[in-house]
Design a protein that fits this description.
mainly alpha, 11 helices
């Protein structure tokens, strides 16, 4: 068995287990009572952090593979994307179950008073779309359109930044750190866009 086959298949369960580590840690901490008296707020914050971390990781894969010799990382692009989707979905479920208590009136009130929820919800919808179409079967079925659709991950990055800054009250630390990672990655992507390159050629 070649080393490439080993890395492509044998390693994947361990990589997935590694990505599940933060989730297992959150669940264990919840049952140990570390997040009380307000487990919903604590879990929302932590799951949001990890969702952001994996979204940054997804956005980082292409430039990292392009400018370094770690080409093997591209084999786990889908795993990283699915991890981002998983933690974003978990973040949403924590809000619905532990924070809002599945109360429709509470959720409706939040949709009116906290518009940053819309940016977060759009990110989850887009990540769901990307997760559903991430299989090899879907890649073959969609052909060239698959790459076009999966560029929506950059819109997800914009949604994350908007979601964070829209809800900032006084402490901007978390929003600033996440933005400091996401914005340069988005700007790098914009600079590589053919339309932007054409614009530069016209103005130069």
């Amino acid at each position: 068995m070649s080393s490439s086959t080993y890395w492509d298949r044998k390693e994947k369960p361990y990589v997935m287990l590694l990505f599940m580590g933060p989730f297992l840690w959150m669940i264990a901490s919840l049952f140990m009572g570390r997040y009380f008296p307000d487990p919903g707020k604590a879990l929302m914050n932590i799951s949001g952090v990890w969702a952001s971390v994996f979204i940054i990781a997804v956005l980082s894969i292409s430039p990292f593979v392009k400018y370094t010799s770690f080409k093997v990382l591209s084999r786990y692009r889908r795993f990283i994307g699915l991890a981002a989707f998983f933690y974003a979905l978990f973040h949403l479920l924590v809000y619905l179950v532990l924070f809002a208590g599945l109360s429709l009136s509470w959720i409706v009130s939040d949709l009116i008073d906290k518009p940053y929820i819309y940016a977060g919800a759009l990110a989850v919808v887009l990540l769901t779309m990307l997760a559903v179409t991430s299989t090899k079967k879907m890649m073959r079925r969609m052909g060239r359109n698959w790459k076009k659709m999966h560029k929506a991950v950059y819109i997800v990055g914009v949604c994350v930044v908007a979601h964070l800054w829209w809800q900032v009250k006084s402490d901007i630390t978390y929003a600033a750190w996440i933005t400091a990672f996401i914005v340069p990655l988005l700007w790098l992507r914009i600079r590589q866009n053919p339309i932007y390159q054409k614009y530069l050629n016209k103005t130069s």
